[in-house]
Amino acid sequence: MALNGTGGYTGSEVSRVRSSHRFIPFVMASLAACFLLVGCGSGGDTAKDSGGTKPGDSTTQPDANKKKIVVGFSQIGAESAWRTANTQSIKDEAVKRGIDLKFLDAQQKQENQIKAIRSFIAQKVDVIAFSPVVETGWEPVLQEVKKAGIPVIVSDRRPDVPDDLYVTFIGSDFVQEGQRAADWLVKKTGGKAVIAELEGTVGSAPANDRKKGFDEVIAKNPGMKIVFSQTGEFTRAKGKEVMEALLKSPTGSQITALFAHNDDMAIGAIQAIEEAGKVPGKDITVVSIDGIHDALQAIIDGKLGCSVECNPLLGPPLFDAIEAVLAHKDLPKRTVMKDDQFDISNAAQVLPDRKY
Ligand code: GYE
Predict the structure, then answer these.
(1) DSSP labels for 41-81?
(2) If DSSP states are collapsed to H, E and C, what string results for 278-315?
(3) Quick one: which H or E segment has residue 206?
(4) Protein residue with its CA nearest to atom 10 in ligand 1
């Protein structure tokens, strides 16, 4: 969808979304007329526009007359504590707003996500939302969605597609997260380190962008060298396995720092470091991304140096965007989540309230 100068959508794009949902104002207008006729419109703001049709607002119409918003969401899987928290946030928010959520878990497979999206088209859902497991290969299926006139909202990871194939993208700035992890490491090590890197899912936006941001900073510091880089697929088990193998190799014995693209891999790697008889936090400085509960605990325990936060609680902004698009409101092309950063200076304060 083309952006206009003010960060919204051009008139023709809005009307495309509008026309695909033209039944909503129509139904609401009919309901309003009905209430006026039978005299039960008093005291309520009968539907002037579909912006007033928020499900869960039970003040004006009996439940039976309300058309529930139906949303299809294709989730990547359940690889990390971040993902579990993200799924919970989305499901909770749908329940809170009375939205009918059709949620499908793709178990890390793009083909499953494509199938899920096609099934949402067939079911004629009001909005399709998804978090793309990898960046590329989405154009054909998103063209199909466009043809069906269903708006697409992207959450968490960005697909590499033309702008007109989705309405809005809500998620964190992964490049900046990588930069922040590197900045912390440069400072902590005085600009001298032999670094191993555990990358996220191959081809995924967070793996590509976090690496890019991290590398940019490291390249400016001649005393910092990345000597090993391999995927740990964003999981604790794989992070541990890869680190175990590395520590047995000649390269592994030189490592003084580890950058993991997420906390789960860092925690798995910390176990491997300890089992290899080394001391995480002393022999090897570890930095990662997400800011999950277990990472904060590992910081307090002195094993993890820093975790750059990546906020998984995307349910509220996602459903705000869904309701806005159905109410024909302009949306920015991109909403960046605000993220914090944790190390020994603040982890203990944050831990008690950390739900994930
Ligand atoms: O950092 C990682 C997860 O896409 C931001 O995916 C997300 C990443 C997150 O599995 O833990």
Answers:
(1) -TTS---SSGGG--TT--SSS-GGGPPPPEEEEEE----SH
(2) CCECCCEEEEEEECCHHHHHHHHCCCCCEEEECCCCCH
(3) helix 205-219
(4) 80
Q: Return d(Cα 203, Cα 177) in angstroms, integer.
A: 17
Instruction: State the Cα angle at 51 between 47 and 54, rounded to 5°.
Output: 85
CB atoms within 10 A of CB 36: 12
Residues facing 306 on adjacent strands? 287
Specify burial of residue 149 (Cβ count, 10 A radius: 0-12, 13-18, 19+): middle
Report the C-alpha gap between 243 and 275 in whole angstroms: 11
Distance 78 CA to ligand 1 centre (A): 10
Judged by phi (left if over 0) then psi (alpha if -120 to 50, else beta), residue 233 lies in left
C-beta of 108 in contact with ligand 1 (< 6 A): no
Closest Cα to atom 8 of ligand 1: 206
Taking CA atoms, 315 is separated from 20, 130, 230, 298, 332, in Å, by: 24, 12, 31, 27, 17
What are the structural domains, with CATH classification, of the chain?
Answer: 70-171+313-338 (3.40.50.2300), 174-310 (3.40.50.2300)
C-alpha to C-alpha distance for 199 and 21, rounded to whole angstroms: 41
Mean pLDDT of 99-113: 98
For 160-173, the pLDDT digits (tens) are 999 999 999 999 99
- Ligand 1: which residue has its CA nearest to atom 6? 83
Residue of 90, 85, 51 whose CA lies nearest to 71: 90
Mutating to test ligand 1, I would choose from 83, 84, 339 the residue with most ligand atoms within 8 A of its C-beta, which is 83
- What's the DSSP call for residue 338? P
- pLDDT of 113-161, one tens digit each? 999 999 999 999 999 999 999 999 999 999 999 999 999 999 999 999 9
Distance 31 CA to ligand 1 centre (A): 44
Reported as a single tens digit per residue, the pLDDT across 242-258 is 999 999 999 999 999 99
The confidence score (pLDDT) of residue 65 equals 65
Is the distance from CB of 340 to CB of 351 less than 8 angstroms? no
